[in-house]
Specification:
Blueprint (H helix, E strand, L loop, with lengths): L5 H12 L11 E7 L4 E5 L12 H11 L5 E8 L7 H8 L7 E6 L2 E9 H4 L9
Parallel strand pairs: 3-4
Antiparallel strand pairs: 1-2, 1-3, 4-5
The structure holds tetrahydrodeoxyuridine.
Tetrahydrodeoxyuridine binds next to helix 2.
C-alpha cells in the first residue's frame, strides 16, 4: 500500500460536499475514497423526497468505485457540517471491501485540516461475514 495524505483526501471530500443534495436534512456530507492504485472517487449524500431512499456520501463513493472496476481501497475521508463517523449501514457496506486496518478520516467542514481517524475494526467489530 502506498503512503497517502489524509489531509489531501479530506480536502477532496470537502469539495465533494458542495455537491450534496441535502435539502431535507440540510446536513451536507462529502466523501473521497482512495483506491489501491491511487485513484480517488467522490461521494456526497443524495437525499430524496421519500426520505428513506436517501443515499449516504460513503456509499455513493464506494459504489462509483466498484462500478469503475475497483475492488481494493486504501482509505476514505468524510467531511460533514460536523465531524461524523459513518452510519451503521455504511459501515457494513464498507466492510464488504475494506479490511480491519482500513482508515476512515472524519472532519468538520469548518476545519477539515483537523481530523479523527477511525479504523474499520473499531467501527464494526465482530462484523458479519458470509462465504457462500
Ligand atoms: N449521511 C451520510 O451521508 N453519511 C453518513 O454516514 C451519515 C448520514 C447523510 C444522510 C442524510 O442525507 C444526512 O446525512 C442526515 O442524516
Amino acid at each position: 500500500m502506498s503512503k497517502h495524505s489524509p489531509n489531501e483526501l479530506l480536502e477532496t471530500a470537502a469539495k465533494a460536499r458542495h455537491n450534496a443534495h441535502s435539502k431535507y436534512s440540510k446536513f451536507a456530507v462529502g466523501s473521497a475514497l482512495l483506491t489501491e492504485d491511487g485513484s480517488v472517487f467522490l461521494g456526497c449524500n443524495v437525499e430524496n423526497a421519500s426520505y428513506g431512499l436517501t443515499i449516504c456520501a460513503e456509499r455513493v463513493a464506494l459504489t462509483s468505485a466498484i462500478a469503475a472496476g475497483h475492488k481494493s481501497f486504501q482509505a476514505i475521508a468524510i467531511v460533514a457540517d460536523k465531524s461524523a463517523a459513518p452510519c451503521g449501514a455504511c459501515r457494513q457496506v464498507l466492510a464488504e471491501f475494506c479490511q480491519d486496518d482500513f482508515p476512515v478520516y472524519v472532519a468538520s467542514a469548518k476545519d477539515s485540516a483537523s481530523f479523527e481517524t477511525h479504523l474499520m475494526e473499531k467501527l464494526l467489530p465482530a462484523r458479519f461475514h458470509f462465504t457462500p
